[in-house]
């Protein structure tokens, strides 16, 4: 039986992992790499230069990896992009996908958003066969940038995918309708399929893909690693402050919120029989006719009530997740995983204290949330966090992010040992400067058969 590779890193707020040797800067006078010929047509990117004019690499932004999901294609799995005749300009980023901004009700997103961005250093373009870092943004980003990777021999690809109701609507969880479920995840899969077809044109090796994601994006990435449809699309996984352990995966995920959205958008009534296929199809056709911003208005009000759309669903009618989350986990294929967590993931939850003493009722509810991991975990949770001394830390941070990951993996993956390295960083300049180091570390560490067995703590 093959063993899983696992590395868990705890940090104060951000981390520096490992620097690979910097890519040799290539002084080039010609721009033969500006134009790339894909299977769908030619694209023109832009040079990335240092301030002194030294060429570092090439960047291609807004490359379509699927058709625009408008009208009949809303709530449908992505279709491969159509070919074009002229050379497509890919110098500028495209707008991100439709989502609700929690800070305000304003929305600047559009549905014409299924694009990806590629950055390739000069060495990769010249000598090829470079490793690939594939970035999946979380729901607050919708698209990730590639700033900071310029010194690595790594081809970086970032994507954008449909979110909220546009990516995870689920009005009828048990039957097939004129809607595909989990289309946001299918968008990500389509991006990975694009890499498999086209990344050779940018000096990348499609057999050497590391998926890097944080928070909600990490949840989706981890779920993808469970799906039989993702086999062969990536070989390593970097999960930052999140994992599939944080989401309940069932056929009813987001069902209530999806139906409430349909009612609010005046596409259904409270008495609509959503369980009937014909009724569901009528609702879906109505939702397709609604303007995206009109729908986002109701999503914003849902967010204020703590009701969020965007959770993947599973079920026997789905190829993506054909069985339960637990069964999928037990069948997970061997894959190298790097888990990254912060010491403080959330604000301190002072409400767990009453007059300086632990609120055992609320603590019990929090521990009960994870009782499915094991009864032993629940008892340990209550015992450890009933101490006032332990309450100085954010209890929910540790339970949701750190302990949950370790306990979940130990229980589900049946690992006998966990190799842990801890690096604390007390100051940082930019998270975007940290991500490239994570990618470098993941690619370097994955080439080793075993991680270091002795725990390591480094403070700086």
TrEMBL record:
It comes from the Eukaryota. Keywords: Signal. Residues 1-28 form the signal peptide. Residues 36-302 form the Carboxylesterase type B domain. It holds the Pfam family COesterase. InterPro entries: AB_hydrolase_fold, CarbesteraseB, Carboxylesterase_B_CS, Type-B_Carboxylest/Lipase. PANTHER family: CARBOXYLESTERASE (PTHR11559). This is Liver carboxylesterase. The lineage of its organism: Eukaryota, Metazoa, Ecdysozoa, Nematoda, Chromadorea.
């Amino acid at each position: 039986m093959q063993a899983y590779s696992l590395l868990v890193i705890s940090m104060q707020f951000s981390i520096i992992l490992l620097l690979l040797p910097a890519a040799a800067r290539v002084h080039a006078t010609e721009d033969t790499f500006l134009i790339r010929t894909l299977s769908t047509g030619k694209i023109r990117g832009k040079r990335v230069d240092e301030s002194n004019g030294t060429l570092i690499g090439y960047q291609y932004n807004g490359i379509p990896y699927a058709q625009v999901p408008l009208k009949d294609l809303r709530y449908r799995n992505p279709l491969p992009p159509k070919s074009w005749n002229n050379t497509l300009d890919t110098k500028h980023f495209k707008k991100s996908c439709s989502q609700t901004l929690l800070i305000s009700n304003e929305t600047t997103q559009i549905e014409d958003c299924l694009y990806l961005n590629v950055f390739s250093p000069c060495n990769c373009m010249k000598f090829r066969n470079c490793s690939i870092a594939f970035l999946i943004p979380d729901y607050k980003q919708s698209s990730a940038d590639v700033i900071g990777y310029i010194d690595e021999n790594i081809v970086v690809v970032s994507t954008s995918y449909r979110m909220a109701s546009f990516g995870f609507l689920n009005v009828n969880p048990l039957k097939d309708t004129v809607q595909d479920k989990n289309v946001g995840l299918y968008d990500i899969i389509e991006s990975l399929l694009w890499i498999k077809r086209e990344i050779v044109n940018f000096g990348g090796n499609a057999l050497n893909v590391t998926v890097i994601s944080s928070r909600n994006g990490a949840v989706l990435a981890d779920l993808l690693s469970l799906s039989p449809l993702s086999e062969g699309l990536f070989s390593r996984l970097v999960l930052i402050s999140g994992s599939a352990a944080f989401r309940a995966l069932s056929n009813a995920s987001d069902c209530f919120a999806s139906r409430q959205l349909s009612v609010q958008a005046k596409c259904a009534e409270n008495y609509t029989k959503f369980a009937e296929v014909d009724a569901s199809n009528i609702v879906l056709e109505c939702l397709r006719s609604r303007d995206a911003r009109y729908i986002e208005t109701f999503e914003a009000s849902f967010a204020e009530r703590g009701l969020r759309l965007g959770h993947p669903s599973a079920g026997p009618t789905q190829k993506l997740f054909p069985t339960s989350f637990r069964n999928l986990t037990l069948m997970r294929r061997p894959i190298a995983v790097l888990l990254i967590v912060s010491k403080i993931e959330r604000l301190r939850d002072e409400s767990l204290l009453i007059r300086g003493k632990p609120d055992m009722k609320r603590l019990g509810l929090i521990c009960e949330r994870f009782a499915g991991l094991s009864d032993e975990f629940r008892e340990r949770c209550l015992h450890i966090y009933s101490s006032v001394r332990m309450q100085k830390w954010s209890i929910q941070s540790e339970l949701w992010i750190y302990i949950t990951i370790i306990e979940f993996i130990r229980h589900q993956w049946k690992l006998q040992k966990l190799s842990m390295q801890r690096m604390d960083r007390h100051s940082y300049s930019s998270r975007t400067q940290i991500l490239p180091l994570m990618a470098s570390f993941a690619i370097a560490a994955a080439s080793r058969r075993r991680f270091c067995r002795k725990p390591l703590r480094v403070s700086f």
